Amino acid sequence: MQIISAFDDIACVTTGITVTNPAMVARIQIQSACMSDYEIAAHLANAIASATDAAHARAWEESQFGEAHAETLVDHEYFEDLVVAWSLVATQREIDSLDGLLTEAVAVH
After folding, report:
1. How far apart are CA 6 and CA 26, in angstroms?
2. Cα separation of 18 and 20, whole Å?
3. DSSP tag of 5
């Protein structure tokens, strides 16, 4: 799991995704062209949740079996890339926080 310790690290990660997975970035940029900021924030939040689930699955398998299954490793890498790609799109759209976009649509009881 990537741990980002400084804001400058985010710039390196999002720039790196255009090199390591340009097809994913291009696909998401095309897909997001007609999306609202709310929709982009929702996709980013979903990617973050999926990446967290994949990281937990990987950590559990490594603790139980000594290593994670190949499928779990691939899922973990894919969802981390997805988070970075959606973060890049959000940054390009100047979305700097998910709080204002998603809190209005979710009621906590």
Report:
1. 26
2. 6
3. -
Rounded distance, CA 83 to CA 43, Å?
A: 9
Is 4:13 a contact under the CB 8 Å cutoff? yes
Both tokens of 50, joined, read 């999926």
Tell me the whole-structure pTM to 2 decimals. Answer: 0.75
Q: Which two tokens stand for residue 29?
A: 């940029």
Distance (Å, whole) CA 107 – CA 109: 6
Q: Which residue has the tokens 């939040």?
A: 45
pLDDT tens, position by position, 46-105: 999 999 999 999 999 999 999 999 999 999 999 999 999 999 998 888 887 766 655 555
Buried b / exposed e over 22-54, threshold 16 CB at 10 Å, is eebbeebeeebeeeeeeebbbbbbebbebbeeb
DSSP-derived letter for residue 39 is: H
